[in-house]
Design brief:
The chain is α+β, with helices and mostly antiparallel strands. Helices cover about 35% and strands about 30% of the residues. Strands 1, 2, 3, 4 and 9 form a 5-stranded antiparallel beta sheet that branches. The longest helix is centred in the first third of the chain and has 51 residues, at about 20-70. The chain is elongated and about 90 Å long.
């Protein structure tokens, strides 16, 4: 006695139910793409803010280093700025022979007008922000036009760091050119440690 088996029928049913149609695959891919797009939009602003925050913290660390350098080396330093880059300068006392040793008459003449020269020491004397970030500066509640700090005789510093451990009170704002949802503020009162705050705006 033999038992009749319907194996071919079962295999046919399995073959029919296994796999996806092209339409189903396209729908799944579309849904995944939409979810990835939403995730990118929701985290994109945070990434830009985080990058700006890291740059601001790096800038504060540099300000601390400049302040310490002025005190420990007993020199006066100045920070020139143009919104995208910074340059550290050193005050030159033309009445001090050691400050003008080896300089030409033309160089001394320029120093009489603007007694600052590029700092040369152990610290990094210039920085540059990423293209998408920029800084603005406020001194004594007045917005500073960086162009006014540059003339034919040289570059003038915007922020001073004195050997007496005092510095120019200031407020620097760091912003992203392509994301106006936040601003980062770096402030100093002339004596205390530098402070950073982040302000978030609704889009």
């Amino acid at each position: 006695m033999t038992v009749k088996r319907n194996v071919p029928c079962i295999r046919s049913a399995n073959r029919a139910s296994s796999g996806f149609t092209l339409l189903e695959v396209m729908v799944v891919l579309t849904i995944i793409g939409m979810m990835l797009g939403i995730a990118t939009l929701s985290t994109g602003g945070n990434e830009q803010k985080q990058e700006a925050r890291q740059q601001a913290l790096r800038f504060i660390a540099q300000l601390d280093a400049y302040r310490n350098e002025a005190v420990f080396q007993n020199i006066d330093l100045g920070l020139a700025m143009d919104g995208q880059t910074t340059q550290l300068l050193k005050f030159v006392d033309i009445n001090n022979p050691t400050h003008i040793t080896g300089k030409t008459k033309e160089e001394v003449s320029k120093l009489k007008e603007v007694p600052w020269e590029a700092y040369e020491g152990n610290l990094k004397n210039s920085t540059e922000l990423p293209e998408q970030l920029f800084m603005s500066l406020m001194l004594e509640d007045k917005d500073i036009d960086f162009n006014e700090l540059i003339d034919d005789d040289g570059v003038k510093p915007a922020i001073l760091f004195l050997s007496s451990d005092e510095y120019t009170p200031f407020k620097v704002t760091v912003q992203n050119r392509y994301d106006e949802s936040f601003s980062i503020f770096i402030e100093g009162d002339g004596f205390s440690r530098f402070q950073m705050t982040i302000e978030q705006y609704e889009k």
